[in-house]
Design brief:
It is a single chain. The chain is mainly alpha-helical. Helix content is about 70%, strand content about 10%. The two termini are about 15 Å apart.
Length: about 140
């Protein structure tokens, strides 16, 4: 990797991480980032086995088990035994959990919108033009 590519990689990594953290801090109080992320994944994919959810979130099964236990206790998720494999658990987001995810997304998206409005038109255009490349990084299209 060239020095210029490393510089872009490092700057992009820091900028995305800092922006994400800043938007999380602007959100509503409640469950932490890991719990919100797990809820959002359940809202998107529907009922999942805990192991599958852990894999999608990139965390250990034990970590996901703790996250889900706290979400069940708060009423954001239901957990039931998997009828196919009684040793496994299935997690499902509740209506309250869906409302929480929607509210958090709405708050963070509104905050990001406010920040985008403060940018120059040139910077907004540059971000718009960069979106397909950023989305490709997420889907590994340009591997």
């Amino acid at each position: 990797m060239t020095s210029a590519a490393q510089d872009v990689s490092g700057r992009l990594f820091l900028a995305v991480g800092r922006l994400s953290r800043s938007l999380r801090q602007a959100g509503v109080p409640g469950p932490g980032h890991g719990a919100i992320s797990a809820l959002a994944t359940l809202a998107t994919f529907g009922q999942l086995r805990l192991g599958d959810l852990a894999a999608k979130e990139g965390v250990a099964a034990a970590t996901m088990s703790r996250i889900i236990a706290s979400l069940v206790e708060a009423g954001y998720v239901t957990r039931e035994s998997d009828p196919i494999d009684r040793r496994a658990w299935l997690a499902t987001v509740t209506e309250e959990g869906e409302r929480l995810v929607t509210g958090v997304r709405s708050t963070r998206v509104q905050e990001l919108g406010r920040r985008l409005e403060r940018l120059t038109p040139e910077h907004r255009d540059a971000l718009t033009a960069a979106l397909p490349a950023l989305e490709a990084l997420l889907s590994d299209e340009e591997g």
